[in-house]
Amino acid sequence: MRPAKAFHLDMKDLKSGAIDLYDIALMNDYLDMEAENEAKIERWRAENERGDD
């Protein structure tokens, strides 16, 4: 249900077949990639920012 929540999909679209399993898999891959990229950015910031405000 992650894609349904993240992309604001209606249950009727899921039930009607307007969105198929390939679409859901693609959206899941995108969400995984986005989370991985955000984690990498946070790690980089933690390692490289010195707090020189």
What does this structure look like?
It comes from Rouxiella aceris. It holds the Pfam family DUF6889. This is Lytic transglycosylase. InterPro entries: DUF6889 (IPR054182). The protein has 53 residues and is mainly alpha-helical. It has one domain. The protein contains 3 helices and no strands. The protein has helices spanning 2-6, 11-16, 21-48. The longest helix is centred in the middle third of the chain and has 28 residues, at 21-48. It is elongated, with a radius of gyration of 17 Å. It starts with a helix and ends in a 5-residue tail after the last helix. The mean pLDDT is 93.
Main β-sheet description: none
Query: What is the domain tally?
Result: 1
Q: H/E order of the elements?
A: HHH
Backbone shape: elongated
Mean pLDDT: 93
C-alpha termini separation: 41 Å
The percent of residues in helical segments reads over 70%
- Portion in beta strands: under 5%
Q: Helix/strand/pairing class, anyone?
A: mainly alpha
The count of DSSP E runs of length 2 or more, i.e. the number of strands, is 0
Radius of gyration, in Å, reads 17 Å
Number of helices: 3
Low-confidence spans:
none
Organism: Rouxiella aceris
Protein name: Lytic transglycosylase
InterPro entries: DUF6889 (IPR054182)
Structure at a glance:
This is Lytic transglycosylase. InterPro entries: DUF6889 (IPR054182). The chain is mainly alpha-helical and 53 residues long.
